[in-house]
Amino acid sequence: MKRKSRKVAIVGSGLVGSSCAYSMVNQAICDEIMMVDRTYDRAMAQALDLSHCTDFMGTRTKVYAGTTSDCAGMDIVILTAGANPKPGQTRLDVLDDAKTITRSIVTPIVESGFDGIFVIAANPVDIVTYLVWQISGLPRHRVIGTGTSIDSSRLKTLLSEVFSIDPRSVNGYALGEHGESQFVAWSHVTIGGKPILHILDQHRERFKHLDLGDLARKTKDAGWEIFTRKGSTHFGIGSALAYIARSILNDEHKIIAVSAILDGEYGQKGICTGVPAIIAGEGIQELLELNLNEEESAKFTASCDIIRRSIDSLSLS
Ligand SMILES: NC(=O)c1ccc[n+]([C@@H]2O[C@H](COP(=O)([O-])OP(=O)(O)OC[C@H]3O[C@@H](n4cnc5c(N)ncnc54)[C@H](O)[C@@H]3O)[C@@H](O)[C@H]2O)c1
User: Fold this and answer.
1) Fewest CB atoms within 10 Å of the CB: 70, 116, 204, 245?
2) Confidence band for 317, pLDDT divided at 50, 70 and 90
3) Looking at the structure, do residues 257 and 287 belong to the same domain, yes or no?
4) Same domain for 109 and 159?
């Protein structure tokens, strides 16, 4: 019996796209990966290099180069083609470039007959995800941004160091914009199931030096810590993309803080921001509405306002 191949296109064969592809090849997440780039030779070279991993892996992933017009049969298109902010710029400063690039990519993909799920990492990711939703005309559950998945992972890594435990034993989220206005929902951070706020209350002396505000700042600034030293961040986000793709292709129902289009959830409509969601075969199966406390709700609203202003500044006609 012939099984249907799981196919993923990665548009943007730079550092993020190739790190994502490498992570997927290593974990045998799909059967085929098509690398796409505006510089075809770059996509081809990445595909060739990645295909040479096969001999050293447990399973075979076919990796080849293609174009945005070849996306018809893809289950997922991962979008990593984008403008990187220059030193001193925020992610929102590259909005105009992002809009031009996104339109030039999504239009031919849709025209090719693509009927799968978009997963987006290109920055500013909340706005680009919104743009992809608008341009593609796909239902909102099939357009997913990486959102604060990487920030949440950075938070877990920081906490794992403080508490000397595995990051996967920490549960919690950075929410809102993947950018300056994100925040940590401390009221929902648990370690081994126990709320962190209870732990700190119970062991005041032991954790008296722990400053949650500082940890939230380090979570937010971690990307810049890397970016200012090596000019890009790509392994973490590449893994986050692969993790989301795996949850879709294997119908895993993982809960991941992704950038999702809100339609009334959290009292917000017509914007895209980082919230926890169940990621399954059809894309976003459900958004989780956390009971945020008053301070967190105010931060969430403020972050949504910033994203909304950027969306409103885009002329989408
Ligand atoms: N969401 C996140 O957490 C996160 C983290 C890191 C980077 N990023 C973003 O990912 C994007 C890519 O970053 P990178 O470090 O891989 O950059 P990069 O410069 O290494 O790669 C970008 C690639 O996109 C290609 N490209 C540009 N315009 C294109 C187009 N119109 N069609 C096809 N290909 C095109 C370029 O040729 C290049 O190969 C940026 O927007 C960056 O800000 C997001």
Assistant:
1) 204
2) low
3) yes
4) no
| Boundaries of domain holding 264 | 149-312
What is the number of structural domains in the chain?
Answer: 2
Ligand 1, atom nearest to 240 Cα: 3
**C-alpha neighbours within 13 Å on the C-beta side of residue 154:** 27
Instruction: Give the model's pLDDT for residue 265.
Output: 98
CB 8 within 8 Å of CB 78: yes
Contacts of residue 72, Cβ cutoff 8 Å, sequence gap at least 6: 112, 113, 114, 115
Distance (Å) from CA 59 to ligand 1 centroid: 28
Measured in whole angstroms, how far is the alpha carbon of residue 160 from the centre of its chain?
21
Residues forming the active site: 178
Helix pair 235-249, 15-27: axis angle to 10 deg = 50
Q: Which atom of ligand 1 sits closest to the CA of residue 234?
A: 6
Question: Which CATH number characterizes residue 209's domain?
Answer: 3.90.110.10
Q: Which residues line ligand 1 (CB under 6 A)?
A: 11-17, 37-39, 42, 80-84, 101, 104-105, 121-123, 125, 146, 150, 178, 232-234, 237
How do 254-263 and 269-280 pair as beta strands? antiparallel
DSSP type of residue 286: E
Q: Is residue 299 part of a domain?
A: yes
Cα–Cα distance, 93 to 264 (Å, whole number): 28
Model pLDDT for residues 92-133, shown as the tens digit of each residue: 777 888 899 999 999 999 999 999 999 999 999 999 999 999
